[in-house]
What does this fold into?
Amino acid sequence: MHDSERTHLERLMIVSNRLPVVFQREDDRLTWRSGSGGLVTALAPVLRDRGGLWIGWSGLPSSDQDEVDDALSESSAATGYELKAVPLTEEELELYYHGFANEVLWPLFHDLQSHCNFQPEYWHSYLQVNRKFAMHIKRQLQAGDYIWVHDYHLMNVAAELRELELDTPVGFFLHIPFPPPDIFVKLPWRFHILRALLSYDLVGFQTMRDKRNFVQCLRMLMKEYPVRSTGGFHICSTEVRDVRIGVFPISIDYHDFERRARHKDVSEAAWYIHEHLQQQQIVLGIDRLDYTKGIPYRLKAFRNALRRFPELQESMTLVQVVVPSRTDIAKYNALKIEIESLVSEINGEFTRSGWVPIHYIFRHLTRTELLGYYRTAEIALITPIKDGMNLVAKEYCACNIEDNGVLILSEFAGTAAQLHKHALLVNPYDVEGVAEALRDAFSMPYDERAERMRQLRSSVRRYDIYRWVERFLEAAISRHLADYPVVAEYIPPDYGDDFGASV
It folds into this structure.
């Protein structure tokens, strides 16, 4: 992009629900460490290079705010960019975060509206907290800043900034799916949310499907605002701005994962895993404890495969890692009980001397353990019933340095758009279909495995996290929208060629 095509950008301001640091108390002193994850890895150097600021909640009660501010001053000096905490009360966390974000938006946007709890007080707290974030942004704002807001917790921030009479450019990226109109309309505050998103200058989605759903909602519910297509984007024209709507599939730091996978500690961990599971093909599932991940369906599919294809018995082991999440919530605890009951039933039915079909792990893995499992598993079974992207699939490919792995992937994961040609695509609700994919992966010739994995790794390497950041910021600050290449949408064959053609 030529300088003449850019608007002026002095500083990047990132706004997210949580700050990119983790606090812990040691000997009555608050200490911090850098958070993990691709977003932190990708944005930290951008913030350092351009000059930047990250605003979010500290993860601690508002009563600790003075200590948090002192610790953030120290961490800002170490990271090379500023960190500012938004204090949240216990009541705000309960209503805004646990309530509206995770009992309304999370299930609704994952097409699970039966899990929603549309309490009005949740909504009012959501507005209040988004207003609090906007006030903190205003206090930190400098001329030339570009504000980049992240995810469903903060969709109303730009609307609050406009209420504060700020016309600073603001972009938004949604990390989770956006639902189709027939589900979105069930949200009592549907018009407010759409207007809030149209207060941004750029709205980014993970997939073509998500963008299509959003555009269809605009055309159905906000008919007063025309939407047109240009250069890979849609443009929605409101009374005050033209809102760019684009697709920016998030990714991982491919080279970092590949480099770490080759490390001696990881090689030893991988050897240790296979030494204890000799003569086995290892099937790996790694998920947070969440009902969107489809873990019970996956376990039933594995049981179906063992019943229908006896050759898999004593030759295949499923390692299912479940990372604890919100076990104090009744629905999540019930899911944990269901998963553990299925594991017990399947192991009770099929265990033989020297072979247990499912190794179930309910805890956080260390980084070395995680990469060791990625490195050693011959099959990754990644079957969410709905996912914005699913970076586990990409991490598995980056770490499969021997090119001997097979990726079985849900067609409802966002990453299916990018990886479907060389993964084995499945419908996670189809227990028999997933079982057949397990059999096919188990018996796949080495040459085919290697070619598929080489293609998968090449794709993940080409579209890495740094390219994601670059493309979003380019779309945000470019005066002119050139033709913008995006990853084509994956459409199941039985949908037909005219799927989504009206968008």
Notes: Confidence is low (pLDDT under 50) at residues 1-7, 495-502. The longest strand covers residues 11-18. The chain has 18 helices and 17 strands. The chain has two domains: 3-87+127-247, 254-462.
